Amino acid sequence: MKKITALLIQIVLILALAACSVAPTVEPDSGTTSQVTAETAAIVSEPLSASYSSEDLNADLNQADTSYITLNGDSITVEGAGTTVDGSTVTITSAGTYSIIGTLNNGQIAINTEDEETVTLILNGVNITNTSTSPIYVLSADKVVLTLAEGTENIVTDGASYVFASAETDEPNAAIFSKDDLTINGSGSLTVYANYNNGIATKDDLKITGGNITVNAVNDGIRGRNYIAVNDGTITVNAGGDGLQSNNDEDTTKGYILIEGGTFNITAGMDGIQAETRLTVSGGTLNIVTGGGSTVNYESEESAKGLKTGVDVTISGGTLNIDSADDAIHSNSSVSIDGGIITIASGDDGIHADATLTVNNGEVNIVKAYEGLESKVITINGGNIRLNAEDDGVNGAGGVDGSSVNGRPGQNTFAATGDVSLNINGGYLYVDAKGDGIDINGIINMTAGTVIVNGPTENMNGALDYDGGFNLTGGFLLAVGSSGMVQAPSTSSTQYSVMYGFDTMQAAGTMIHIQSESGEEILSFTPSKEFQSLVLSSPQLTNGATYTLFTGGSSSGTITDGLYSGGSYSAGTQLASFTLSSVVTTVGSAGGMGPGGGGFPGGPGGNPRP
Questions:
Q1: What is the pLDDT of residues 343-352, one digit of tens each?
Q2: Residue pair 29/352 in contact by the 8 Å Cβ criterion
Q3: Counting beta carbons within 10 angstroms of the beta carbon of residue 597, is it exposed (0 to 12), middle (13 to 18) or buried (19 or more)?
Q4: What confidence score (pLDDT) does residue 64 get?
Q5: β-pairing, 89-92 with 83-86?
Q6: pLDDT per residue as tens digits for the range 413-459
Q7: Secondary element (H or E) of residue 18
Q8: Domain layout of the chain by residue ranges
Q9: CA angle, 109 then 113 then 116, to 5°
Q10: How many CB atoms lie within 10 A of CB 79?
């Protein structure tokens, strides 16, 4: 979030304003307070996995010893053993299978057994309402399996206020509430109307392996304290609070969410999916909208992130579509993108990690964000990334950016530290940024891959902006933008670069073409915005060779993100002919700039810093 000030008068104005005001204090995100320790760091090294038993996966509706519970409005009848009935409340006291059908106007299905076996509830077409407590309440059981019978519609509704046993008690607090392990399976449907607080909640483990589940909750939609694991099903959540949440903050091996499959449609007033420790997505389809989406003027002090964790987010598969008022993907420590197709529209950061952000594979498309990628250490080893940012495209800074709730998006303060870095070892990165294209409060290392930057048009920002040097040894780099703060790779690099400064601002869509003396195409590119500087590094550039630069003209090649490949070039206007004489050669109006760039004195690379 550092901004470079090009003119002395701007610095004076900023200092004058600073004397009259105090910057807001930025606190870590109160929604996730876990701090990374040596123990949790070791846990992250092991991939998340879930174990599903046969009873979790198989909806067996034909058990010979099944008891049948019929709901008759204000009364209940039972065929079979293992239950007690008191008016409109049936209590299951023994392990076994119970098939339930009918309507209960104001009653409860309670499970209270000390058996070390499973209770299976087959919802066979029920409509259960309770105006003062949970309609389905698991007080004690080794495990409960909630099976949604094929072809059935099941509805559970609670009231707007609960009556508790004592003033010291605040449970149950969800329409379906369990103190023990809970599994939901089957192929039928379940609709939950949670008018008091949460929709489906367990204080233990929650697994979902099937069903068409819809939860409408005034607070959180689905909660599993120890963990939530999902491998199938269609889950729709409309929540005033979080969509899904796992909140065990006492055991670093718990408080996680694992999504291996299924389809999610989540609309949440706060976070879409929030895990106290870890969140892994390896499959499925996730459609998430938080805080009203990226286009609203979000003013709440509550977190409204798409995916949020205290320790780690790992995405290795699946399709994710996130439209968030706050960060789309956020971790208080690490984020790893190992696969999947991710589309993001965010009111703040596209992807944010306080410590490390690593992209190894996958497709990341950030169509809207205040800043695109943000972390202390950013490493790109593979994958395809395209991003559009209102401010910086890629931002590397130290410190903690827990939330944007204390000011406009991106206002949170970072402390400059020496171990901030951007490391590009492969992959494809396309940046379109109104602020700095790539802004690193440290060092950039590039060994391979492709980087294309359509940078800023204002001179107070640059397409490339770094403090600690830019060591480039391989790959393809193209950065165009304004000329006031232009920087190129450092002279410590081993691959050759050219930095060209145009005399005047060039119109958006003006083709830039560079070719060798023999006519070999080195570059054909049409920037998406007006520009006055060009930085190019390519394995095709060799020391001592002479090249010609043209503007205008046309190409018959295939265009991707403004870059042409193949085809032939029809010449426009020749602007310059230059010979590479050093690792970084400056040409045109950039000739007075050093390899570190910058038309203004002061600071690394010639950039003054506030």
A1: 999 999 999 9
A2: no
A3: buried
A4: 74
A5: antiparallel
A6: 444 455 899 999 999 999 999 999 999 999 999 999 999 999 999 99
A7: helix 8-20
A8: 53-219
A9: 135
A10: 11
